[in-house]
Amino acid sequence: MSLKHLSQIAWIAAVSFGGELLNYLLPLPIPGSIYGLVLMLILLMTGIVKLDRVKSVGDWLVSIMPVMFVGPVVGLISSYDSYKDIIIPVFVITVLTTVITMAATGLTAQGIIRLQEGKEDETNAE
């Protein structure tokens, strides 16, 4: 592991810590990980943190994300008897909320792209 990677891990860890700190300080029912994601987004959009300072470690973390679900899945499988009565409603809710989240994300992305294209058109017209 190079010094570059350690630096990137430090940036991601610091932002994650900032998210957890915000979770502790603010009386809102929002997880610290969400605060951390929003904080990283703000830092990247403002240029305080450059993308190359976190990109390779961020890509690596995303690539190993499926491995992180092995433990919880094993736990769910081993405790099936405790939730087998509610499995159908949980499955339906999970599918519906996933579809709603995907639709909202897609529409938001399309809206942002349209806004950016509109700004580019205005700049080109000048």
What's the arrangement of secondary structure elements?
Elements: H1 3-25, H2 32-46, H3 55-63, H4 65-68, H5 70-78, H6 80-83, H7 87-125
Provide a quick synopsis of the model:
The protein is an all-alpha fold and 126 residues long. The chain has helices spanning 3-25, 32-46, 55-63, 65-68, 70-78, 80-83, 87-125.
Describe what you observe in this structure.
The protein is an all-alpha fold and 126 residues long. It folds into two domains: 1-68, no CATH class; 69-126. It is built from seven helices and no strands. It has helices spanning 3-25, 32-46, 55-63, 65-68, 70-78, 80-83, 87-125. It is extended. The mean pLDDT is 92.
Residue-averaged pLDDT? 92
Total domain modules: 2
Q: Strand percentage, roughly?
A: under 5%
Q: Helix proportion of residues, in percent?
A: over 70%
Structural class by SSE content = mainly alpha
* Major pleated sheet: none
User: What order do the SSEs take from the amino end to the carboxyl end, as H and E?
Assistant: HHHHHHH
Principal-axis shape equals extended
Rg, rounded, reads 20 Å
Straight-line N-to-C gap: 49 Å
**How many DSSP-defined strands?**
0
